[in-house]
């Protein structure tokens, strides 16, 4: 039975036909897969269908997801790999438990047993079947009639990616993978997303025909619910950006299971959209996935569904989340805005190289304060999936430029603006995208309001905040100057501060190589009650500098040259002498040496540190303490 006779209008297959070698191989794979996939019922006699018909349906849904332009973007190698991996993605369901250990190796098998073996063999195989599929395709590619080992490697990885795998790991799922034909590259993450989403969409009652339901109805609860979900789902279709799911049930339990299944599809769709967005476009090819919204229409009989779930009071969330535990002072809002601007500039620098000159400007006119950068910019997708979501950070999720490492930590920085205002505006533009101009309100039925008009903005982002005189430490220009300089060290991006007011103008380039020695020395000198015969020049400083692949900075001890008045005696005069800790140029906190109270300076950790919700505990203190001990011993 020929596949193209069953699906004569399939656009993917029509395009593959143009390459007779790849097309012939694909037809051979079908015949082998038909036989092997019948064996799934040995392991799963009471599970929903995982035969060749599920594989065919997966291919149907891939076509459903793609517009004609998207299909035409795919080259012949991509079509062959996409169709073949769709056929073989569930081949791991067909391998019996006694064959798995030999197939994947004792070491790997033991690891998987430790992770997943809880219930019976069937549940274990189901949990790891994507891993089994990967090994089976690699080791049996000749039997499967795959052209060669190069194609088999990519097909195996795409098949494996239909569940659990991190498709945005571009070291494994390469954006530009060349296979043996050498004609063109294969975009592995795009193909993997299509297979994963299409597999999730095969949820209709075609997977549980009436004869299977009648004679093989499962007797355990999980299996029953799986059968009922599929039996209740009538249709999956697509209209433009919408994936529409129709279902009907007379069971509240099945209704809840359907809603959970639809939420899972929404989660998969959002994840795949993010991955594809990161891929972007190159070599005049643009990879896209048009559907972005899942709509359900579930008819019920015998009960009234009430979709009542926990919701959140926005004002309470803002008050609680952006509290003193995370942002102890309002000036930390400035730090968050500045670090986002720095990340945007650094990412663009990584992409554009030496042709790009990063700039950040801070402007105040007495009514508003603006933070303007010429960084990477934001597009509508990123606003929806990152900018508007607490805990999601575009910079932290960036995988397309692996050498880039952000200084932002949590993906919540922009919302900290609501600590000092009730609304703010953003104007932004990303390369090759339309400019966007919008307002965000703290408490509103519509948090995001987009304006039709935009200024003649070039690439970058401007954040505009209304001045609130309840926070003079932020909106006083001299105070703002000091705040920004104190929060950063060795910053390679020029920052220009400009203010206009009725009493005059202020114009300055900020310096990020602060003289901490002079600041701390002045603090100690001001406290010491010098006798007439002593002068401040008798107080001295000894310095020790650091610079390696992880750490840079300098520490110094303030002491007296008078032996009768050694540096230990100066500890009582310490008034704020401290060690400033920075991570990638961003100041995190200050600490004091436990043994040398007049030990000051700064340490900047060049690499991003592990996270902790409290920003005062972000840095690796084992490294800090080790550095301080060396310094204390030397002094």
UniProtKB/TrEMBL annotation:
InterPro entries: HATPase_C_sf (IPR036890), HD-CE (IPR056471). Pfam families: HATPase_c_3 (PF13589), HD-CE (PF24391). Residues 44-273 form the HD-CE domain. This is HD-CE domain-containing protein. The lineage of its organism: unclassified sequences, metagenomes, ecological metagenomes.
